[in-house]
Specification:
CATH class of the largest domain: Alpha Beta
Number of domains: 2
CATH topology of the largest domain: Rossmann fold
Order of helices and strands: EHEHHEHHHHHEHEHHHHHHH
Bound molecules: tryptophan
Shape: elongated
CATH architecture of the largest domain: 3-Layer(aba) Sandwich
């Protein structure tokens, strides 16, 4: 069986450290593992419009931003096919047929949808396009024969929905040969840092909460954000004992700090456990820990920023690459679409030619 990887992001803003830890880092690792036949990353502009119908400019302008973020963190467009969702119109055709296989009640039970309806104030009046996006996302996944979907926890219900559609399709149309692979999730192994809190201490770093450190933030901004990050409100004097739990700076250190960073930037300690122990005991000030964190984050972001500046000189080529890849993806989706229609018995041309 072929190993086909597909994932994507909505282009609603620049990507931040939460994305890096939650998915981008794993994608780069996966890209370099060479253990796949095809790797797609989709810029989900159509999906972004399901809750941004009146903010087309925002979605449009962020397509290139997200593409640049990908390339800046080390996604290689030669290895990974980066394409734009709306430029693969076949996806809508898949969605039309899949919609007949899913009930409204099933969509309303999707935990991610439930949560998002609440957050967006859509509960009383649900846009059809929005509630339908798990089916549309199933099309994204199934159209390419995807076997592996690298995503965060919140996307698991979407993959489950896609699997249900495959089963329902097979049950309903009994295809003679397999049309759709059963996709599986690929969750990054480091559970601890799968979700990064915001600098304000809120559970999740996100653009909407305004608590994110962006991959494109400059050094000064990163410094200011980390210096203002939420720590332990009871840790007032340096001598006070401090709490690690809920302390954003330590959550980030958990995600980014390696032993060699101590040798380089803070040789008084061997590792993070020693630093945490001192903080808990008292006698270790927030500024010292934050300064250490800034150095680590800067080490990560400096090469990303450099690549971003390079990309900014080649915007036209990046657009060309996206258009080429989208056209290729469209042809690939078309091939599977024909197979699907064949299996459903609605490929009329083939029927009548016989
Ligand atoms: N729903 C995903 C997000 O909000 C984006 C997405 C769209 C996606 N289609 C996908 C992710 C297919 C994985 C596979 O980030």
């Amino acid at each position: 069986m072929k190993n086909i990887i597909l994932t994507g992001d909505r282009p609603t803003g620049n990507l931040h450290l939460g994305h890096y830890v939650g998915s981008l880092e794993a994608r780069v690792k996966l890209q370099n593992s060479m253990d796949y036949d095809k790797f797609y990353i989709m810029i989900a502009d159509t999906q972004a419009l399901t809750d941004n119908a009146d903010r087309v400019d925002k979605v449009k302008n962020n397509i290139i931003q997200v593409a640049i973020d990908y390339i800046s963190v080390g996604i290689d467009p030669e290895k990974v096919s980066i394409f734009i969702q709306s430029m693969v119109p076949e996806l809508h055709e898949f969605t039309s047929y899949f919609m007949n296989l899913v009930t409204l009640a099933r969509l309303q039970r999707n935990p991610t949808i439930k949560e998002e309806l609440k957050v967006r104030g859509f509960e009383k009046s649900i846009p059809i396009g929005f509630i339908n996006y798990p089916i549309s996302q199933a099309s994204d996944i199934l159209a390419f024969g995807t076997t592996l979907v690298p995503v965060g926890d919140d996307q698991l219900p979407m993959i489950e929905q896609a699997r249900e559609i495959v089963n329902s399709f097979n049950y309903t149309y009994s295809p003679k040969e397999e049309v759709f692979a059963l996709p599986k999730e690929f969750i990054s192994e480091n559970k601890l840092c799968r979700r990064l809190p915001g600098i304000d201490g809120k559970l999740k770093m996100s653009k909407s909460a305004g608590n994110a450190i962006y991959l494109c933030d400059d050094e000064k901004t990163v410094r200011e954000k980390i210096m203002s990050a939420y720590t332990d409100p009871d840790h007032i004097r340096v001598t006070d004992p401090g709490k690690i739990e809920g302390n954003v700076v330590f959550a980030y250190l958990d995600a980014f700090c390696k032993d060699e960073h101590f040798a380089k930037y803070l040789p008084d300690y061997k590792n993070l456990d020693e630093l945490k122990a001192h903080y808990r005991r008292g006698g270790l000030g927030d500024v010292k820990v934050k300064t250490f964190l800034i150095k680590i984050v800067e080490e990560l972001l400096t090469p990303i920023r450099e690549r971003r500046n390079e990309c900014l000189k080649h915007i036209d080529e990046i657009y060309e690459m996206l258009f080429t890849r989208s056209a290729e993806a469209s042809r690939e989706a078309r091939a599977r679409l024909e197979k699907m229609k064949e299996a459903m018995g609605i490929n009329y041309r083939n029927l009548f030619r016989k």
